[in-house]
Predict the 3D structure of the following.
Amino acid sequence: VTRDRARWGWFCDFDGTISENDMIREIMLHFVPEQTAPLIERVNRRELSVRAGVEAMFACIPSRWFDDVRAFAIRQTRIRDGFGLFVEAVTGSGHLLAVTSGGFDFFVEPALAPWRDKLTVYCNRIDASGEFLRVIWPHPCDAACRADCGLCKPSILRRHKPELAKAIVIGDGVTDYQAARLADFVFARSRLLDECRRQGLPHAPFDTFHDILAALDKPAHESVMKEEEHRP
Ligand SMILES: [Zn+2]
């Protein structure tokens, strides 16, 4: 098996990437805006870890509202253009396509249902058995990560990397940056794009998944994804 035929791993964020909007933010601002707006600000200013912030936000929502929260989130999700074609192209070539989402199964799974058998999905869960919603984190930080991510994207990438010829990250936010640093190439938009530029990571901007497909279709010598020189 030559290097360019070997399996690549694509690690794709959900909120703000596959979904055009950020569902946790929309849920909070719809159901509990007064309590959670300051928490969102503190997470953005990095005074609070993502894990601690998201736990505190969901703890503001009574469990008896959960059916409404779920219905609202499913209704609000808008899938970015070209995602279906992108799934077919990547998984049709035998590559791994993992959705790494700091979001929750109750809106991620319904949104991905049309392609679910082709994808590996990492996301969080909600326990609605108590008085208020409680977050369950099935994919926490490994020993090499001190960021208190909640769902730890760099840990997931590290675990898969030995089996992959190349790792590619697609994302938009600050939570994607630590995984992007471990990747061979990054497709970025929004704040992740600023960070990739600032830190000089190998990257290309994207607006829709058609842009990523176009980058893959270019001849190897002009592709942003060209293979590095083979060393003897
Ligand atoms: Zn982490």
